[in-house]
C-alpha cells in the first residue's frame, strides 16, 4: 500500500480503472428508451407514460423517465419539469428498470450515446414533404414542445430512423421479438422516440401499472396538509369539474366521437357499456347536484365536506347553496395545483369525475389501485323521464 501511494501515476490509473468499472456497471446492456411526452397536458402525458412503461418492460430496456411538459401562461416555449418532482422513482423500480433523464444524460449518455450517434425514431417521416431532406426526417425538434424538450438536454439529432410497420402493442403478438430483431441493443443501445411509444387513451393491459406511480414526498405532504388543516374532520367527497371553454367546445363533438378522449374508462374500449353523451362530457348543474346528493346518502361514513378540482368553474357558491340541508362544507385548493389536487382526490372517501377527461382518468386509476370507490357524471345515463328516480 505504501509503495502504491509513492507512485502518483499508478494511483491515477488505479482510480481510473475503478471508475471505469463503476460506470460499466451502471450501463444497461439491454438498452434504453427515451421519448418526448409531446402530446397534450398532464393527463394525456400520464396515459402515455403508463404505455411507455409497459413497452419498455416488453422490450426489456430501461425506460428513461422524461420530464413533464408544461405550458405556462405567457411563456412561448414549454417548460420541462423533472419527473421526480411529482413522482417517486423507487416505486417504479419495483416494476421495471427506470432512470431519470437528468441522470441518464449526465452519467450514461456520454458513454453510449455521444452526439454523433443520436438518431431520432418515428413511424414515418414528419413534415410537409416540400424537399427531400424533410421527407427523410422525423423533424424531431420542429415546433413546440418538441424543440424546447430536447433543447433542455442539449440534444440534437444527426439522423432519423423510421420504424414502421412495427408498433407499440407488445401484449397481443410477438412484437417485442420483432423490435429486438430489427434494433438489437448492441447496435442500437438507445431508442429515442419523437413521441411516446404508447397509445391514448392508455391501453387496457397497461392501465394497472398505475399502482407503481406513487406521488413524491413533496406532493403527498401538501395533500395531507390540506386534508388535515383545511377540511373539517370526517369523510369527504372529491369532485372533478371539467368546464373550461375549450372543454365546452370539445363536448360539442361527443355524438360523433363515441370514444372521445378517456371515454373508455366508463364505456369500455369497445363501447360495450353504452355510448358517450353530452351530459357525461358537460353535465348540467342539475345533474351534478342530484348525483352529489344521491352519493352523500349512500356513504357509510357521513361526509362533512366536499373538495372540488376544476379547470375553470369550481361551482363553490352553487354547491354551498344546494347542499345546505346536507350540512357539508365545500372547498377548493388555492392557489390551484393540479398535481396536489389529484393527490387529494385520490384520498377522498368517494370521487365523482368526468368520464371523458384524462385528468379524471388519472384519479380513477389511482383509486382503483387502492380499492376506493369512484363514479362519473351522467353515467350510467337515466333510462327515461318516467323511470324511477331519487327523490331529492
Automatic annotation (TrEMBL):
Enzyme class: transferase
Keyword Ribonucleoprotein among UniProt keywords: no
Keyword annotations from UniProtKB, A to Z: Carbohydrate metabolism, Disulfide bond, Endoplasmic reticulum, Fucose metabolism, Glycoprotein, Glycosyltransferase, Notch signaling pathway, Signal, Transferase
PROSITE patterns reported for this sequence: PROKAR_LIPOPROTEIN
Record GO cellular component, one term: endoplasmic reticulum
Compartment(s) where it occurs, according to its Swiss-Prot or TrEMBL record: Endoplasmic reticulum
UniProt catalytic activity: L-seryl-[protein] + GDP-beta-L-fucose = 3-O-(alpha-L-fucosyl)-L-seryl-[protein] + GDP + H(+); L-threonyl-[protein] + GDP-beta-L-fucose = 3-O-(alpha-L-fucosyl)-L-threonyl-[protein] + GDP + H(+)
Record-given protein name: GDP-fucose protein O-fucosyltransferase 1
Native species: Megalurothrips usitatus (bean blossom thrips)
Phylogenetic lineage: Eukaryota, Metazoa, Ecdysozoa, Arthropoda, Hexapoda
Amino acid at each position: 500500500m505504501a509503495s502504491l501511494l509513492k507512485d502518483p501515476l499508478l494511483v491515477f490509473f488505479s482510480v481510473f480503472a475503478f471508475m471505469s468499472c463503476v460506470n460499466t456497471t451502471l450501463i444497461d446492456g439491454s438498452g434504453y428508451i427515451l421519448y418526448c411526452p409531446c402530446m397534450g397536458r398532464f393527463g394525456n402525458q400520464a396515459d402515455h407514460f403508463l404505455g411507455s412503461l409497459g413497452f419498455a418492460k416488453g422490450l426489456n430496456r430501461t425506460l428513461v423517465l422524461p420530464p413533464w411538459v408544461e405550458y405556462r401562461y405567457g411563456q412561448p416555449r414549454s417548460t420541462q419539469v423533472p419527473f421526480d418532482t411529482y413522482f417517486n422513482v423507487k416505486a417504479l423500480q419495483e416494476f421495471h428498470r427506470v432512470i431519470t433523464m437528468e441522470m441518464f444524460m449526465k452519467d450514461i449518455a456520454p458513454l453510449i450515446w455521444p452526439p454523433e450517434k443520436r438518431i431520432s425514431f418515428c413511424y414515418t417521416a414528419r413534415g410537409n414533404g416540400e424537399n427531400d431532406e424533410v421527407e427523410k426526417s422525423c423533424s424531431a425538434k420542429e415546433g413546440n414542445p418538441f424543440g424546447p424538450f430536447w433543447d433542455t438536454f442539449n440534444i440534437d439529432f444527426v439522423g432519423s430512423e423510421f420504424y414502421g410497420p412495427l408498433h407499440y402493442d407488445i401484449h397481443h403478438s410477438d412484437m417485442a421479438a420483432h423490435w429486438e430483431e430489427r434494433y438489437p441493443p448492441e447496435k442500437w443501445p438507445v431508442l429515442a422516440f419523437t413521441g411516446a411509444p404508447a397509445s391514448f387513451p392508455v391501453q387496457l393491459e397497461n392501465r394497472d401499472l398505475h399502482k407503481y406511480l406513487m406521488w413524491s414526498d413533496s406532493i403527498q405532504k401538501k395533500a395531507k396538509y390540506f386534508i388535515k388543516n383545511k377540511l373539517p374532520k370526517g369523510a369527504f367527497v372529491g369532485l372533478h369539474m371539467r368546464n373550461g371553454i375549450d372543454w365546452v367546445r370539445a363536448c360539442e363533438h361527443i355524438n360523433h366521437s363515441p370514444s372521445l378522449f378517456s371515454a373508455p374508462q366508463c364505456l369500455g374500449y369497445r363501447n360495450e357499456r353504452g355510448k358517450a353523451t353530452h351530459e357525461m362530457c358537460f353535465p348540467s348543474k342539475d345533474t351534478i347536484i342530484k348525483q352529489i346528493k344521491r352519493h352523500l346518502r349512500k356513504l357509510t361514513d357521513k361526509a362533512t365536506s366536499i373538495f372540488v378540482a376544476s379547470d375553470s368553474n369550481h361551482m363553490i357558491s352553487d354547491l354551498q347553496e344546494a347542499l345546505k340541508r346536507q350540512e357539508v362544507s365545500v372547498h377548493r385548493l388555492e392557489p390551484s395545483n393540479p398535481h396536489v389536487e389529484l393527490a387529494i382526490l385520490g384520498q377522498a372517501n368517494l370521487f365523482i369525475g368526468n368520464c371523458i377527461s384524462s385528468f379524471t382518468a388519472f384519479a380513477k386509476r389511482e383509486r382503483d389501485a387502492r380499492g376506493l370507490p369512484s363514479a362519473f357524471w351522467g353515467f350510467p345515463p337515466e333510462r327515461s323521464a318516467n323511470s324511477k328516480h331519487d327523490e331529492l
